[in-house]
Amino acid sequence: MLECTGITKRFGGIVALGGVDFTVREGQIVGLVGPNGSGKTTLLSCIAGSLAVTSGSVTFAGSDITRSKPHTRAHAGISRTFQIPRPLNSFSVAENVAIAAMFGSEALSKPLAMERAATVLDRVGISKHQSSQVSALTLHERKFLEIARALALDPKLILLDEVLGGLNPSEAAEGMELISSLRSDGISVVYIEHNVKAVSALADYMYVLNRGQNLAEGTPQEVLSNGLVIEAYLGGGAHA
Ligand SMILES: Nc1ncnc2c1ncn2[C@@H]1O[C@H](COP(=O)(O)OP(=O)(O)OP(=O)(O)O)[C@@H](O)[C@H]1O
């Protein structure tokens, strides 16, 4: 479904990504982990199109999208969340989701977009807040609103950037169940998360980045038992 080959991204003298390869197959949850600053969000942005790659290629559903604008990629079926949710505070929760639906591939009219919003908010479990202002939401609800906005685009591939960060264990468990249900609905998922345990519990396949390079990939079991990963990501004391 998605194939990134030799992705390099430089910011001036900083090489955030130095030739990264990354593949997602249809219906997979792919975990993307790595230490702070290893390039995870940069890779997500190169896939979503909000950052242009310095070199390398991105292919989605058989088409080369390396130079496509973010909205073209969204229309093709790629949607994303942001690590720090930035909802539109002057609109209600439902309107925030409806606006995403109006700008998605189907370009829904406002009444249809509001219907889509109601369905999606129900799906993520925050429908009781549809008429609320965003400022009334807790962190947990804001994170789920972020997922709802991405789902409103009816994506084939959803890119989740630390959507469970800062949640308590029961909220995170609810989030994991939601992410797992996306796969059951045939949506492919790229899931960035600091909590390796959470990723490995959900992912079909995992990639580990370190300093902008591929460090390891494989099933969660393979990755978690990889000595390089233990050393670089979990720290040398992880054996103990
Ligand atoms: N817009 C930018 N301008 C300059 N440097 C940047 C920019 N965005 C990212 N970087 C640098 O690129 C590298 C990779 O950053 P990135 O945010 O992709 O890492 P990350 O793995 O997502 O980190 P974290 O887990 O902390 O979110 C870092 O050295 C970061 O400082």
Automatic annotation (TrEMBL):
It holds the Pfam family BCA_ABC_TP_C. The keyword Nucleotide-binding applies. InterPro entries: AAA+_ATPase, ABC_AA/LPS_Transport, ABC_transporter-like_ATP-bd, BCA_ABC_TP_C, P-loop_NTPase. PANTHER family: AMINO ACID ABC TRANSPORTER ATP-BINDING PROTEIN, CONSERVED COMPONENT OF ABC TRANSPORTER FOR NATURAL AMINO ACIDS-RELATED. Residues 2-236 form the ABC transporter domain. GO terms for molecular function: ATP binding; ATP hydrolysis activity; L-isoleucine transmembrane transporter activity; L-phenylalanine transmembrane transporter activity; L-valine transmembrane transporter activity. Coiled coil: none annotated. This is ABC transporter domain-containing protein. It comes from the Bacteria. Keywords: ATP-binding, Nucleotide-binding, Transport. SMART domains: AAA (SM00382). GO terms for cellular component: plasma membrane. GO terms for biological process: D-alanine transmembrane transport; L-alanine transport; L-isoleucine import across plasma membrane; L-valine import across plasma membrane.
